[in-house]
Write a structure and sequence with these properties.
The chain is of the alpha+beta class. The protein has helices at residues 13-25, 85-88, 124-137, 145-153, 170-173, 205-212, 221-236, 247-252, 259-264, 272-276, 322-341, 351-354, and strands at residues 9-11, 29-36, 39-44, 55-60, 63-68, 92-101, 104-109, 117-122, 155-159, 185-192, 195-202, 217-218, 283-289, 295-302, 312-313, 316-317. The termini are far apart.
């Protein structure tokens, strides 16, 4: 039987602290936004005090700054450089280890852990990105087992966006600034005029169970209206827009466009865009051996279509020019991804614009 969402509730700051403690008591490691190393980014945190209350970020092409804000908002920022992908589909993953012995070798299983993560305060675009990864890594006949274990245990608490930043365009992609489904709990922070409360909505039975022991009050129509108005303001102030009608056909008909050569003059092929992208899933297999030759390991590591080795086959790389690598990335993300998975691989988070060192939009 499908879960029927119950009525929304409103939490004070004390209630939010109780919700955070409930996540910890459930045995989950909490991953939440925190201010660290000059950025507001996701990290494993131990208390509500680790959240970036009173901080926001300012984003533009090749530009990122953390700034103070006066209202003490917990979630008044955009998506940072890290996404849940780092925990659900780790950058480096040990597949197996082999030990050489006198009569042969012995295989040892690699990483068999199934950590329980609670993603607290992730943005709707990041929630949508998890959905993209689910289709890639869990859809079809060959699911990624390590991802499946982590994903099964993950709790998703999304913070609806109440303001947009300079490189955001989730409204164009239909992935934000408000998430309607896919979460366990959804929070909308309501601040201003002396008010600081959070509207909370349950999306699953697990979410409702977490909320059951948290101090709260029933939301009234004015609370719901305020929450809708806050996300509507964010949608109306997006820093970017992308026209998606006919986009796949337009890109696939322009594979020989001189535009790719123009971009190549600026692109460094540094792979920043793919590293910060919350949906990129490409990986490579790396075999290593210790100096004695007695132990070898097989690792799965993140890879990028911007590297020469990514398309290497016998005789060399298929995509030697930077223009061809940029074209591969963009046309896959916005066109051939649709052919493969029925939707684009872009969620409009704007990370690839912010973290491109030369500001390619």
């Amino acid at each position: 039987m499908a879960f029927e969402p119950g009525p929304a509730h409103v939490l004070e700051a004390d209630g939010l602290s109780a919700l955070f403690l409930a996540l910890l008591d459930s045995g989950h490691t909490v991953v939440a936004p925190t201010a660290r190393d000059g950025a507001i980014t996701l990290r494993e945190v131990g208390s509500l005090a680790d959240l970036p209350a009173g901080k926001t970020d300012e984003q533009a092409p090749a530009s990122y700054r953390v700034k103070e804000r006066s209202d003490g908002a917990f979630f008044g920022h955009a998506a940072g450089p890290d996404a849940p992908k780092r925990w659900l589909h780790p950058p480096a993953f040990l597949r197996f280890r082999a030990h050489r012995e006198k009569t042969g070798f012995r295989l040892e299983k690699g990483d068999t852990s199934a950590p329980k993560y609670a993603f607290f305060g992730i943005k709707p675009c990041e929630l949508a990105a998890i959905g993209r990864q689910d289709r890639v890594l869990l859809g079809g006949p060959y699911a990624e087992p390590a991802y499946a274990e982590r994903r099964k245990e993950a709790l998703l608490v999304v913070a609806q966006c109440t303001e947009a930043h300079g490189t955001c365009f989730c409204a164009s992609m239909g992935t934000g600034p408000r998430a309607e489904t896919g979460f366990d709990l959804a929070l909308t922070e309501l601040v201003g005029d002396g008010r600081h409360e959070l509207l909370v909505e349950s999306g699953t039975e697990r979410g409702a169970a977490l909320l059951s022991g948290v101090p709260k009050r029933a939301a009234v129509p004015a609370d719901l209206e305020a929450a809708r108005a806050a996300t509507a303001r964010a949608a109306a102030t997006m820093g970017r827009t992308l026209e998606t009608a006919g986009l796949k056909q337009a890109l696939q008909s322009k594979v020989e466009s001189p535009h790719w050569d123009d971009v190549e003059k600026r692109c460094l092929c540094c792979a920043n865009c793919t590293l910060v992208c919350p949906t990129c899933f490409c990986s490579t297999i790396e075999d290593t051996t210790d100096l004695t030759g007695s132990v070898s390991e097989r690792w799965r590591r993140w890879d990028s279509c911007f590297t020469l080795d990514f398309s290497y086959i016998h005789g060399g790389s298929v995509r030697r020019a930077g223009a061809s690598r940029y074209r591969q990335w963009l046309t896959h993300k916005l066109a051939s991804w649709v052919d493969q998975f029925g939707e684009t691989g872009c969620v409009g988070c704007g990370r690839c614009i912010t973290w491109c060192p030369v500001g390619i939009d």
